[in-house]
Design a protein that fits this description.
The complex is a heterodimer of chains A (300) and B (94). With 300 residues, chain A is of the alpha/beta class. Chain A is built from ten helices and nine strands. In chain A, strand 6 and strand 7 form a beta hairpin. Chain B is mainly α. Helix content of chain B is 51%, strand content 0%. In chain B, helix 1 packs across helix 3. The chains are: A alpha/beta (300), B mainly alpha (94). At the A-B interface, helix 8 and helix 9 of A face helix 2 of B.
Chain lengths: 300, 94
């Protein structure tokens, strides 16, 4: 856990964000993207922790790659993640917009109309979830993000999280009982709760085959949804061209079990379904999954 | 009057213990083995945050309690005793 915090702190500071913001204003998107190639090269050469974190995924996704190709794969991940952060600021600062295609809109609209309860949005470190949250505004619901409060003030400021205008709120997973009571409450009030489903980070997890090997995914979101009797909508996004994102909410999972004895099997089944959806995503958009964890190793 | 309250709380404690053992499938524990002041989470009964979700549902289903009233109430979930007192004070009288 300490490593994760260090990883975050190293990557964002006020000066760095100022540098990219200025480049964006002066040279536009392509100019800011251009800077990324140098900055990411620095991280590739000197940030062994970041490279190692990306390599766990790349070596499973591209099994036939040699070492040099894998290094370039990690470089691709760094660059794409940097582009996503720049894109987020580009939208947020009003410099321009991206075309955003929302897949599954009718499905989620129907789910929200058919119940007073909200839904859990199970997402992952893919595409650009900050852009995704912007799209979700059209549902007119407050979106709660179950996550650690950003340690890094620069990152929080850049993402504009927890502002009234954005209708985004953080429920801290460092609150009592991991914030689950608050999650239950806001779901009962009809709100949307976004939970990351691709990193267990020490939370209860279960096995699922992923990219040909046994991996570990957290099942907390499914457990909460089963208790709250609400659906889990898988929320994924991807950048499909220079000025376009796709946001997909078309996969819906209904975690249910009749008795305590059925619970484990029911939750495992949900996790396997989610892993399958993630595998399809990784095949389609290989350089847009920024998991940066070895999810094939069980986390303590 | 105080005696009645005490009896009611004792009954709630007993019900809660039975519910926890049955619905959370606590292994190798009988309701009568659980002490009134047993801490629910971490050390003690060893429950975790996902068990808390189940407890919230049990309180809703069996005592008509609302989740919004439980938010940020760390004191409620401390022990069997604190849970029983909260239920006693807040359950909907039918």
């Amino acid at each position: 856990m300490a490593q994760q915090i260090n990883f975050s702190k190293k990557r964002g500071n006020q000066l760095g964000f100022w540098f990219f913001r200025t480049a964006l204003k002066l040279f536009g998107l392509s100019g800011a993207y251009g800077l990324l190639y140098f900055v990411c090269l620095y991280y590739l050469l000197f940030d062994r922790l970041a490279v190692s974190a990306g390599m766990a995924y790349i070596k499973r996704r591209f099994k036939t790659y040699n070492f040099l190709q894998r290094i370039f794969g990690v470089y691709g991940l760094f660059i794409n993640q940097g582009k996503n952060l720049i894109d987020r600021y580009y939208i947020h600062s009003g410099l321009g917009q991206f075309d955003i295609e929302l897949q599954g809109y009718d499905k989620i609209r129907s789910l929200l109309a058919s119940s007073q309860k909200g839904v859990i949005l199970l997402t992952a470190h893919v595409g650009n979830w900050q852009v995704t949250m912007t799209v979700l505004k059209q549902f007119g619901k407050t979106v709660y993000l179950l996550m650690s409060p950003e340690e890094n003030a620069a990152v929080k400021n850049a993402l504009n999280i927890d502002s009234d205008r954005e209708m985004l709120r953080i429920i801290s997973n460092e609150n009592f009982l991991g914030g689950v009571v608050e999650v239950m409450k806001v779901i009962s009030e009809g709100s949307l709760v976004s939970i990351m489903g691709d990193r267990s980070d020490g939370y209860p997890s279960t096995e699922a085959y992923f990219l040909g090997e046994k991996a570990y995914f957290p099942y907390g979101a499914f457990s909460i949804a089963a208790a709250a009797q609400c659906p889990v909508v898988v929320l994924l996004s991807a950048k499909t061209s220079a000025k376009k994102y796709v946001v997909d909410v078309s996969h819906v999972i209904f975690p249910r079990y009749n008795s305590r004895a059925d619970k484990k099997d029911a939750l495992n089944k949900c996790v396997r379904e989610f892993a399958g959806i993630m595998e399809d995503y990784a095949i389609k958009y290989p350089f847009q999954w920024f998991v940066f964890r070895d999810i094939w190793k069980r986390q303590n | 009057m105080q005696k009645n309250d005490a009896q009611e709380i004792a009954e709630i404690r007993k019900t809660l213990k039975e519910m926890l053992v049955k619905d959370l499938a606590l292994e190798d524990i009988k309701p009568e083995d659980i002490k009134d002041d047993a801490v629910l989470f971490g050390e003690g009964l060893g429950l975790d945050s996902l068990d808390a979700v189940e407890i919230v549902v049990l309180l809703q289903r069996n005592f008509g309690l609302e989740v919004k009233d439980m938010e940020n109430r760390k004191d409620i979930f401390y022990s069997i005793d604190s849970l029983a007192k909260y239920v006693h004070e807040n359950r909907k009288k039918t």
